[in-house]
Amino acid sequence: MSTLSKDVAIIGTGTAGLAAYRAAKEHTDSVVLIEAGVYGTTCARVGCMPSKLLIAAADAAHEIRHSHAFGVIAEPPKIDSKAVMQRVKSERDRFVGFVLESVDSIDEQDRVRGYARFIDNTTLLVERQDDEDLRIDAKRIVIATGSRPSYPGFFQAAEDRLVVNDDIFEWDALPSSVAVFGPGVIGLELGQALSRLGVEVSMFGVGGALGPFTDPEVRASAHQAFAGQFRYFNTDAQVDSIERTSEGVKIRYDGGEEVIVDYLVAATGRRPNVDNLGLENLELPLDERDVPIANPYTMQVGQTPIFIAGDASNQIPLLHEAADQGKIAGDNAGRSLKSLADVRSGLRRSAIGVVFSDPQLATVGMRYDDVVKRYDRDCFAIGEVSFKNQGRSRVMLKNQGLLRVYAEQGTGMFLGAEMAGPRAEHIAHLLAWAHQQRMTIPQMLDMPFYHPVIEEGLRTALRDVNANLHLGKALMDRCAECGVGS
Ligand SMILES: Cc1cc2nc3c(=O)[nH]c(=O)nc-3n(C[C@H](O)[C@H](O)[C@H](O)COP(=O)(O)OP(=O)(O)OC[C@H]3O[C@@H](n4cnc5c(N)ncnc54)[C@H](O)[C@@H]3O)c2cc1C
Asked: Measured in angstroms, how far is the CA atom of residue 42 from the centroid of ligand 1?
């Protein structure tokens, strides 16, 4: 077995791993990137980009179908599903190409292909397909191994008709029908897009969960918007059996109902890729999913020379978070080569999450659950706007959904928001920027609002929460125990 000695070893060449590599290289030339799979990142190959490409095609079909409401009469669209998938794949390949170019620009001697496992805190064993195993001694190691779809074992009954997001983006044409399990972020995006492209979609959920929401009012409003968009939509379905038949997958549900679909799409969540890394050889603090617990500001795992970043960290599985965490982890791995005491806090931004469904869904800062966990009920205020009668939303016939904003009593500080509604991706950015600037509701209301825009709806919600706020020292004192003013 050959051996390699490096200052920093990074496991995984996704978004987090590439960011970690660039940051570590600022401190030392001795860095190695290890990749077990294909280069190109989850985001570009099977995540953010192909899903948005599919949604773009679906939106085009939807707009044509609904143009008559504006007095614009169009023929019902004909979906050429081969052409749809061709564009998804060719544009996807273009995005992947950019990643491959950036990987190619990395010095070949900094790259190792193979599957890495820990022997101890500073030693990895890399299993290589076409070569003997490689032992890597590294002073610092960054785990950036991403995540993979996870689903309950009984889905296996669908046999070869069980698919995950990765498989969908390999289809050459669209099937006639699918059952999507999991109306979460990925399930809603893909399920709605497929439905708008003419696929009959049945959507099965458990426990009432929908999208990223914790606020029951916003969830109810989103539920209302999605109900009726699918052949079947139940966020709390009772699935009795799944069976592969000669016709496809037969699903029995709700005590007597039955549907036969071409594919079962599992969108029931993702699990961090840390279960096969040999972590049992180390003594790391682990969370309830057996993921190493890292300080979110330094990405260091306990006091060890190991850092973790991206989806693998089980913190916030989003692209920009993977990039930020990778940068912090790589920077700290490189800067702490002499002493782990040199590890520093990096920039963590205000939380923002967007789902590209219609209506779009978004969460910013503290979600409703975080707020009610932290504050007594009289120490925070809620304001809201329904988009039903919001001027610009009605003009565009996008008038559905609800935005709720949360603020701290006493200080008037904006805490967070949950939203289902038009152009939520843009409202979410305004709100996230205000959150990171630690703005108060009165300060946000002092900002300019054009007319007629959807942001006027945001202003209505801000005015509403403002009317429910009591500012000043008396309330700050009363709510001090909840952390108001801190
Ligand atoms: C369908 C879908 C849609 C999404 N849409 C969005 C979106 O709109 N916006 C957004 O912000 N996020 C979105 N995401 C999430 C986003 O794609 C991820 O958060 C991000 O790609 C994670 O990057 P990463 O670097 O952690 O992991 P990855 O890019 O998965 O990289 C991990 C790498 O590690 C390698 N690896 C794993 N184990 C080993 C090992 N033992 N040895 C060597 N190499 C190993 C893997 O082969 C892989 O290349 C979406 C995800 C999906 C699935």
From this structure: 4
464 CB near ligand 1 (under 6 Å): no
Ligand 1 contacts CB of residue 115 (under 6 A): yes
392/248 Cα distance (integer angstroms) = 44
Please indicate, yes or no, whether residues 8 and 142 belong to a single structural domain of this protein. yes
Last residue of a domain, one of 284, 316, 342: 342
CB atoms within 10 A of CB 121: 16
Same domain, 331 and 186: no
| Pair (12, 143) in one structural domain | yes
Q: Whose CA is nearest to atom 9 of ligand 1?
A: 48
Q: For the chain, how big is the Rg over CA atoms in Å?
A: 24
Among 218, 237, 268, give the residue marking a domain's end: 268
Q: Domain range holding 363?
A: 352-482
Residue 423 CA to ligand 1 center (angstroms) comes to: 26
- DSSP states of 294-336 as a string? B-TTT-BBTTSSEEE-GGGGTS--SHHHHHHHHHHHHHHHHHT
Query: Please, how many CA atoms are within 13 Å of residue 87, restricted to the half-sphere of its CB?
Result: 13
Tell me if 210 sits within 8 A of 235, measured CB to CB. yes
* Torsion sign over Cα 230, 232, 237, 242: negative
- Identify whether 217 is part of a domain: yes
Is 336 found in the same domain as 475?
A: no
Per-residue confidence of the chain (486 residues) as pLDDT tens digits?
899 999 999 999 999 999 999 999 999 999 999 999 999 999 999 999 999 999 999 999 999 999 999 999 999 999 999 999 999 999 999 999 999 999 999 999 999 999 999 999 999 999 998 899 999 999 999 999 999 999 999 999 999 999 999 999 999 999 999 999 999 999 999 999 999 999 999 999 999 999 999 999 999 999 999 999 999 999 999 999 999 999 999 999 999 999 999 999 999 999 999 999 999 999 999 999 999 999 999 999 999 999 999 999 999 999 999 999 999 999 999 999 999 999 999 999 999 999 999 999 999 999 999 999 999 999 999 999 999 999 999 999 999 999 999 999 999 999 999 999 999 999 999 999 999 999 999 999 999 999 999 999 999 999 999 999 999 888 888 888 888 887
In a domain? residue 426 = yes
Residues 256 and 398 in one domain: no
**DSSP characters over 77-111:** PPP-HHHHHHHHHHHHHHHHHHHHHHHHTS-GGGE
Q: Atom 35, ligand 1: which residue's CA is nearest?
A: 12
Q: Which ligand 1 atom sits nearest the alpha carbon of residue 355? A: 8
CATH at residue 24: 3.50.50.60
Q: In total, how many domains does the chain have? A: 3
Which residue type, as a one-letter code, is found at position 353?
A: G
Which atom belonging to ligand 1 lies closest to the Cα atom of 270?
A: 53
